[in-house]
Design a protein that fits this description.
about 200 residues; alpha+beta; 8 helices
Length: about 200
């Protein structure tokens, strides 16, 4: 697709065809495109857990099961995804990178960072994977993990202590789906979120 078309068609898809696996060459392409994301200091403090086998996907959903969360509806449709990519960030990779001579933050003081770039950069990579899926005529949705289940997910898949999952992409050929009711909110007007030159309030001259 043309890039403009990819952006126009991009949305979070929550229902997939469980009988159509994503071909291995597309899985590889999606992941490799994610690795083209920018990262502060070229730290590349990310890793991605790619789950295609049914047993691994079942293990993911079992590990993320939240007793207080929804048991059906959109989550039941989400579980039909034949591909799950868990995005994990590594803060220590950034603290170590910026302690090197060309950066000079040898104290590894986390307060020097105005925002957690390890999470931001991993999110950039996940977005590139999401857009690649759209370009390949696949559906995709980025979801967060229940906060109380993060350790369970790490234990289930043997994730090293320094890595923290920031979310997961479900990917597959589109199946039965429903648009999120949140979309009824509509897009905020450009003038209310974009400020040229200085911050102005609506109606301010």
């Amino acid at each position: 697709m043309e890039f403009d078309e990819v952006i126009r068609r991009r949305r979070m898809v929550r229902g997939y065809d469980p009988d159509r696996p994503v071909p291995p060459e597309l899985v590889d392409k999606i992941v490799r495109h994610g690795l083209r994301a920018p990262s502060a200091g070229f730290s590349q403090g990310w890793s991605f857990l790619v789950l295609t086998a049914r047993a691994d996907r079942d293990r993911f959903w079992a590990a993320t099961a939240d007793a207080e969360g929804p048991a059906g509806g959109w989550l039941a449709r989400m579980r039909t995804a034949p591909l799950i990519i868990v995005a994990l960030s590594n803060k220590s990779a950034y603290l170590e990178r910026y302690a090197q001579p060309d950066k000079g933050w040898a104290d590894r003081d986390e307060s020097r960072w105005p925002a957690p770039f390890w999470d931001i950069d991993t999110g950039f990579a996940a977005l590139l994977m999401h857009l690649t899926a759209v370009n390949e005529d696949l559906g995709s949705c980025f979801i967060g993990l229940p906060a109380g289940r993060v350790d369970a997910v790490k234990e289930a898949f043997g994730v090293p202590p320094e890595f923290r999952p920031i979310g997961a992409l479900t990917i597959g050929y589109r199946g039965e789906d429903k648009r999120s009711p949140s979309l009824r909110r509509g897009h905020r007007p450009v003038d209310s979120v974009v400020h040229h030159g200085r911050w102005t309030s609506a109606g301010e001259v």
